[in-house]
Amino acid sequence: xxxxxxxxxxxxxxxxxxxxxxxxxxxxxxxxxxxxxxxxxxxxxxxxxxxxxxxxxxxxxxxxxxxxxxxxxxxxxxxxxxxxxxxxxxxxxxxxxxxxxxxxxxxxxxxxxxxxxxxxxxxxxxxxxxxxxxxxxxxxxxxxxxxxxxxxxxxxxxxxxxxxxxxxxxxxxxxxxxxxxxxxxxxxxxxxxxxxxxxxxxxxxxxxxxxxxxxxxxxxxxxxxxxxxxxxxxxxxxxxxxxxxxxxxxxxxxxxxxxxxxxxxxxxxxxxxxxxxxxxxxxxxxxxxxxxxxxxxxxxxxxxxxxxxxxxxxxxxxxxxxxxxxxxxxxxxxxxxxxxxxxxxxxxxxxxxxxxxxxxxxxxxxxxxxxxxxxxxxxxxxxxxxxxxxxxxxxxxxxxxxxxxxxxxxxxxxxxxxxxxxxxxxxxxxxxxxxxxxxxxxxxxxxxxxxxxxxxxxxxxxxxxxxxxxxxxxxxxxxxxxxxxxxxxxxxxxxxxxxxxxxxxxxxxxxxxxxxxxxxxxxxxxxxxxxxxxxxxxxxxxxxxxxxxxxxxxxxxxxxxxxxxxxxxxxxxxxxxxxxxxxxxxxxxxxxxxxxxxxxxxxxxxxxxxxxxxxxxxxxxxxxxxxxxxxxxxxxxxxxxxxxxxxxxxxxxxxxxxxxxxxxxxxxxxxxxxxxxxxxxxxxxxxxxxxxxxxxxxxxxxxx
Length: 704
What we know:
The chain is elongated and about 115 Å long. It starts with 25 loop residues before the first helix and ends in an 8-residue tail after the last strand. It is of the alpha+beta class. The strands form 5 sheets. Strands 1, 2, 3, 4, 5 and 6 form a 6-stranded mixed sheet that branches. The chain contains 27 helices and 21 strands. Helix 10 crosses helix 20. 42% of the residues lie in helices and 16% in strands.
């Protein structure tokens, strides 16, 4: 099977630039004669694509890199029979068409020289500088002789660490894999499948996260063709059978152009065919596909405000499908993607999906981080066209890092990989992490943002924010409300993590059930391994409430205007001086005294019960019932009772309810020597680590 037979076509390539078949250029084109600014024809194609994005780029360094690469690889051939130099040329052409700057293209031409020839990193550094050397080193594979079976995962680990310092490393790797996938047909089927699976599990998710959609979509189609040849053939046949499907979208696009023209909005309206995997997924989701399901409309405008103007016109003049509307301009995706998504129905009921974005957004949507150029260039250099660099990626301490392309997921990945020394564990965890292809943003109550994978819980947020200090996390407040650590967070939530002051506190084994991020799982597992005694004590069955009662009855400090009546302070609200109180007569000549805001007072009045005048006596002592809401931890009960005793209160009765979702409710009936000490007592109880609220009794009484 030929290399071309495995390729479903480059549907995402920039319009107007056909793919160059470097194999047909021949020896003369690879070596000379020199043309186009004294460049051989092969590198001339790269130069043309590069200058389409960077008109003032200095091509001398590209020529110099090409000469070194061609000389170094001379005599080497690919398995398909072409001179090996065709590979770095093709990789560089892919990046040039995406708009990569000169340094990236230089490193791309040289990316296999250190790995496959006698060229050394010192030579690359001497000839082309630190940045090019760093990029070449970042994509150079580790030797199987040194690492054995761990060579592949350790190579990816090395590449990811390098990407953390400069995302251009991964840009080169993705383009390298794309060209290799295009020409994979010369490999044995089992090797094709192995490479395709790694591409599917690791490189396609990385392309998605870096926003390089042009590479991601073609890689998806190539993997689809190798791993699912029957479904791929059926999908290609379906697309061929619906070759005129674009007519339906073309008709709607004409209507859209007319509407926007009449509204005075300058816009370019394009019909974008879906690639094979996208068509296949649509078929699985919708069943029978309609003509408009084989593509989308793309509306390109100049300014951000024009995007919303276009949206308003479309929703006014067409019937919008509201459920399909998404605003990724106000809230960009984690991979820098920005667009308005909507869907409208035409006069005949056909529904067309519409993407609305500016030309700049479109460039970033297609090329992702490649379109952002050098993240280390100064502000002046970043605004230039030549792609020259000012700061060294290998030594980012030279200046403040100005990299907008290191998102939260990459920072998290770099953190947990440091804690994973085993290659197999790293490889498995990397695949699992990359499989989580959606991300949410939550706000920290104290300020700042946390980027987390969709489905992350408060446990994940704790470790993302506090690292190993999260071992002492007791609970969380989500959007101001107390929540267990198992709570799954949603995009836009505000989370406040509550930590214990006890440094010896540790995570529960049950946290692993709620941890989605590798960083959290690795940290929890590490702590539990180091503290086997915590694992060896499984949670007991739900226990009955613990009740402690001391016989310390005293006379209530309240006087009612009813001779001979027995006065009782209501247990539902436990009034104390100087609370505003009222009283009601109940069975057996007993008068109960309530706080005026107690719900029982409203109930009594609804029953036409007459209130009885009541006042506080001179005795300072009082009795009160308090509820302490806390997160379970060792020694909590002892610490609470110590705080109560230190405040000078005596415990008359205490009840501890069984834990529920790591939360424990304590009920204390206390005797205070002076009611004035109640606020201080409640503050002291709240200061106990793990206690998040202390309140006076407010529940409905069981009897009137």
